[in-house]
Amino acid sequence: MSTPVGPQGALGRRSAPWRGLPASVVAVLFAASLLAGCGSLWGEKEVIETNDPPDVIYRKAEGLATRGKYGDAAKQYEDVDINHPYSQEARRAILMAAYSYYKAGKYDDAISAADRYLTLHPGTQEADLAQNIIGMSYYDRVLDPRRDQTNARKALAAYDTLLQRYPQSRYAAEARNRTRIMRDLLAANEMVIGRYYLRHNNFLAAINRFRSVVTDYQTTEQVEEALMRLTEAYMALGIVNEAQTAAAVLGHNFPDSKWYSHAYGLLGKVGLQPQEHEGSWITETWKGDGKPA
Predict the structure, then answer these.
(1) Hey, is 47 helix, strand or coil?
(2) Mean pLDDT over all residues of the chain?
(3) Residue 11 parent element (H or E)
(4) How far apart are CA 110 and CA 97, in angstroms?
(5) What does each C-alpha distance from 97 to 53, 104, 206 come to in angstroms?
(6) 194-243 confidence digits (pLDDT tens)
(7) More confident site: 51 or 243
């Protein structure tokens, strides 16, 4: 007599369709089943497989972007690359995914997609756009100079890379402007921290911050005050030669600066004059004609 097959028995029979197949074939089929149906993982994102041709998916993404649904559009663009990586649309889809993520405010995803594009297609005509998206994604998260400036440093590095690799890019002018902004912001951040140390009589720590401005951010507006603060900090430590050198370089380059008046007056209180000294790191930084080395 045959035993009736209940729901569990029927499910059991249907769940073992690979019985009798070689183990290697079973492994392949099992892996394929994990990618089918609801989805799988692409990096850390859920991936939905589709049988739609690449141009259809791409047009769906464009439609979403046109309606301002950038987050959804980015996922559709990524689906083109995931499901049809060798299609004509795949390369452009990666770039558009990066841009859509940027427009959606998902900056880390934008950077990841742009990095992927540059890794796979570094020499293409659109590579400068990918690099620009990276720069914008950091730049848009830059806060005031009193906050952590990690994003500012990364934005500066990204824009510097763009200018070095793609000097004729249509994004170069904006990149140059933003590098100036970033350098001024980073210099301002160094000054904020340096002044804090100076107020608390931590003169060596203050000097390190002001030195960073004089060495790394010479073209910013912050450099005048940095030289004066170096005069102040070195005088507090009794390192007269460096104090005189800082004031002399300040006076040579910015004779009308209010900060030079402060530095000059500070030295004058103890009968000293601004004077450059050979061997000073400040002299080495501002060689010969008093301009940055």
Answers:
(1) strand
(2) 84
(3) helix 7-14
(4) 7
(5) 18, 10, 44
(6) 999 999 999 999 999 999 999 999 999 999 999 999 999 999 999 999 99
(7) 243
DSSP state of 286: S
Do the beta carbons of residue 229 and residue 210 sit within 8 Å? yes
Structural tokens at position 104: 């959606």
- Domain 40-184: top CATH class: mainly alpha
The tens digit of pLDDT for each residue in 3-39 reads 333 323 333 333 333 344 344 433 333 333 333 333 3
Domain boundaries, the chain: 40-184, 187-285
**Kind and range of the H or E run holding 20:** none
Query: pTM score, two decimals?
Result: 0.74
CA 160 from centre of chain = 11
- Distance, in Å, from the CA atom of 107 to the CA atom of 162, rounded to the nearest integer, reads 18
Write out the DSSP string of 132-176: HHHHHHHHTT---TTS--HHHHHHHHHHHHHHHH-TT-TTHHHHH
Structure tokens at 52: 């739609």
- pLDDT range class, residue 60, cuts 50, 70, 90: very high
CA distances 272 to 107, 129, 207, 266, Å, are 53, 55, 20, 9
| Burial class of residue 189, CB neighbours in 10 A (0-12, 13-18, 19+) | buried
- Selection from 214, 188, 187 nearest residue 283 by Cα: 214
d(CA 233, CA 184): 22
pLDDT of residue 147: 74
Whose tokens are 């049988």? That residue is 51
Q: For 187-285, CATH number?
A: 1.25.40.10
Question: From residue 253, how far is each of 162, 272, 286 by CA, in Å?
Answer: 31, 19, 10
